[in-house]
C-alpha cells in the first residue's frame, strides 16, 4: 500500500512541476546549441590573445563538434541504460566544468582540451534531456506544446549564438562566451533534482561495445574529414584516408547492428517513417543553418565592416521572428499536419536564403538584410519545432534516448557536411572572381551569395524528402 501511495505522490509531483522541469531542461539544451555558434565572433580576439594561427582557430569549433556528433548515439543509449536524469546531471556537470576551464585557458592546447570535454558532455546531456521531455509529457496536446518549445530552443540557440557572442565579446572579452554557461548550468543542476523524478535504471544487459566503438569512431572520422576540406582540399591524402576510414567504420557498424543481440541502434527504428523523415530533415536543416550563421557573421564583419557588437545585434530580428513563430507552430500542426508544416517551413527558409543571396557588398541592414532575416527566422522556427516532433513520433520509452540522440546526431553531421560543402564552394567562387579582376569586397560577397544559395538548396531538398517519404500528413505526431 505504501508503495502505491508513493507512486501516486511521485506521479502527482511530475504533473505539477513538469512545465518548470521543461524550462530547466530546455536551458541546458540551449547551452548545447549555443556553444556551437557563440564562439564564432570571439575567434579573432581569442586567437590574438592566445597566439593561435588561422588554421588552429578553426579547430576551436571543430574540436567541439567532433565528440558531440560522434558520441551522441552512445550518450542516448547510456541514458536509456543508466537513467535519463542521471546521465543528464553528469553531462551538465561536465559541461559547466569544461566551460569554466575554457574561459580560464592560457594556451591553445588548454582551450582545445576544454572544448573537447564540452562536446563530450553535451553528447551525454542532450539526448537525455529530450528523452526526459518525452517521458514528462504523455498527453498528445501537452507533448505537442512541449516539443514545440523544445524545437524553438534549438533554433533560438543557433541564432542567439551570434547575437550573444558579439555582445559578450565586445563588452566583457572572449572568455565571457564560455563563462556565461556556468551560472546557467548551476541553476539547472540545482533545480532539476526537485523538478524531475529519478527514473529507473534500464535492464541489466551488456552495452553494445563494438557498435559504440565503430559508430563513434566512424562519425568522428567523417566530421574530421569534412571539417578539414577547406584547409587541405577534397582530394588531399588526409581527406581521402579519413573518408575511407569513415566508410569502413560506419559499414562495420551497420553489419554489427544487424547481428547484435542488444544493438546500440536497432535499425528497425527507421521503419518508422516519421523517425526516418524527421532525421533526414534535421540533417538538411543542420547543413543549411550552420552554413547560414557562419557565412552571415563573416559577411557582416569582413564585407560590411560591422563590429562584434553590431554584428550580434543584427540577429535580433531573426531570433525574434523565430521565437514568435515557434509559439504558434503547434496550432499550425494541428490544422495542417506536421508533414505539411515542416515542408512549408523549409520552403520559407529557402525563400529567405535566396532573398539574402542578393545582398550587395555595400548592403544596408534595413534595405537588404532585415526582410530576409525575418523570413529565415520564421522558416527556422517552424522547421525546428515540426522536425523535432516528427523525429520522436511513435518511439517507445525504452528507445527515447536513442531517438533523441539520433536527432542531435543528424543535425550535427548535417552541419559539418553543409559547412564543408558550402565553404569549399564559396572559396572557389571567391578565387574565380578575384582572378577575374573583381575587387575583394565584391568577390567575398559573391562567395557568400553562393553559400546562401547552397543553404537554400538544402532546405528545398528537405521539403522534397519530407513530402515524398511521409505519406500521412494529417496523422498526429505525438502518441500517448
UniProtKB/TrEMBL annotation:
One of its GO terms (cellular component) is plasma membrane. Residues 21-474 form the Major facilitator superfamily (MFS) profile domain. One of its GO terms (molecular function) is transmembrane transporter activity. Its main location: membrane. InterPro entries: EmrB-like (IPR004638), MFS (IPR011701), MFS_dom (IPR020846), MFS_trans_sf (IPR036259). Keywords: Cell membrane, Membrane, Transmembrane, Transmembrane helix, Transport. This is DHA2 family efflux MFS transporter permease subunit. It comes from Paenibacillus whitsoniae. The lineage of its organism: Bacteria, Bacillati, Bacillota, Bacilli, Bacillales.
Amino acid at each position: 500500500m505504501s508503495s502505491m501511495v508513493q507512486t501516486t505522490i511521485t506521479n502527482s509531483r511530475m504533473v505539477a512541476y513538469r512545465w518548470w522541469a521543461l524550462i530547466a531542461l530546455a536551458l541546458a539544451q540551449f547551452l548545447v546549441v549555443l556553444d556551437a555558434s557563440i564562439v564564432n565572433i570571439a575567434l579573432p580576439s581569442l586567437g590574438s590573445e592566445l597566439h593561435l594561427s588561422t588554421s588552429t582557430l578553426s579547430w576551436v569549433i571543430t574540436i567541439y563538434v567532433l565528440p558531440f556528433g560522434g558520441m551522441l548515439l552512445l550518450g542516448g543509449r547510456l541514458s536509456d541504460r543508466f537513467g535519463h536524469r542521471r546521465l543528464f546531471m553528469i553531462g551538465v556537470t561536465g559541461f559547466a566544468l569544461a566551460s569554466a576551464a575554457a574561459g580560464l585557458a592560457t594556451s591553445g592546447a588548454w582551450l582545445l582540451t576544454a572544448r573537447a570535454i564540452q562536446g563530450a558532455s553535451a553528447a551525454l546531456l542532450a539526448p537525455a534531456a529530450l528523452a526526459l521531455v518525452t517521458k514528462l509529457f504523455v498527453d498528445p496536446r501537452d507533448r505537442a506544446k512541449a516539443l514545440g518549445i523544445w524545437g524553438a530552443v534549438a533554433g533560438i540557440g543557433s541564432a542567439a549564438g551570434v547575437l550573444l557572442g558579439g555582445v559578450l565579446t565586445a563588452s566583457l572579452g572572449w572568455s565571457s562566451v564560455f563563462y556565461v554557461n556556468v551560472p546557467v548550468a548551476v541553476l539547472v543542476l540545482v533545480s532539476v533534482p526537485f523538478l524531475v523524478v529519478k527514473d529507473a535504471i534500464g535492464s541489466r544487459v551488456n552495452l553494445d561495445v563494438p557498435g559504440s566503438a565503430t559508430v563513434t569512431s566512424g562519425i568522428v572520422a567523417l566530421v574530421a574529414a569534412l571539417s578539414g576540406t577547406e584547409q587541405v582540399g577534397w582530394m588531399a591524402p588526409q581527406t581521402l584516408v579519413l573518408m575511407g576510414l569513415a566508410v569502413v567504420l560506419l559499414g562495420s557498424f551497420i553489419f554489427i547492428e544487424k547481428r547484435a543481440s542488444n544493438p546500440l541502434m536497432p535499425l528497425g527504428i527507421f521503419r518508422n517513417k516519421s523517425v526516418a523523415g524527421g532525421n533526414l530533415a534535421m540533417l538538411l536543416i543542420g547543413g543549411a543553418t550552420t552554413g547560414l550563421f557562419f557565412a552571415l557573421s563573416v559577411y557582416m564583419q569582413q564585407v560590411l565592416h560591422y563590429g562584434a557588437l553590431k554584428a550580434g545585434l543584427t540577429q535580433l530580428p531573426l531570433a525574434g521572428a523565430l521565437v514568435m513563430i515557434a509559439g504558434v507552430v503547434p496550432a499550425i500542426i494541428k490544422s495542417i499536419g506536421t508533414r505539411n508544416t515542416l515542408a512549408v517551413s523549409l520552403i520559407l527558409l529557402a525563400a529567405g536564403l535566396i532573398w539574402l543571396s542578393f545582398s550587395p557588398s555595400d548592403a544596408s541592414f534595413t534595405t537588404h538584410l532585415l526582410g530576409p532575416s525575418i523570413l529565415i527566422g520564421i522558416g527556422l522556427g517552424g522547421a525546428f519545432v515540426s522536425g523535432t516532433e516528427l523525429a520522436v513520433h511513435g518511439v517507445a520509452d525504452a528507445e527515447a534516448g536513442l531517438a533523441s540522440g539520433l536527432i542531435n546526431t543528424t543535425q550535427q553531421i548535417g552541419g559539418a557536411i553543409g559547412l564543408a560543402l558550402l565553404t569549399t564552394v564559396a572559396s572557389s567562387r571567391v578565387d574565380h572572381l578575384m582572378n577575374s579582376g573583381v575587387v575583394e569586397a565584391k568577390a567575398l560577397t559573391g562567395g557568400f551569395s553562393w553559400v546562401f544559395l547552397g543553404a537554400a538548396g538544402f532546405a528545398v531538398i528537405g521539403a522534397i524528402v519530407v513530402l515524398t517519404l511521409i505519406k500521412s500528413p494529417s496523422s498526429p505526431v505525438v502518441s500517448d
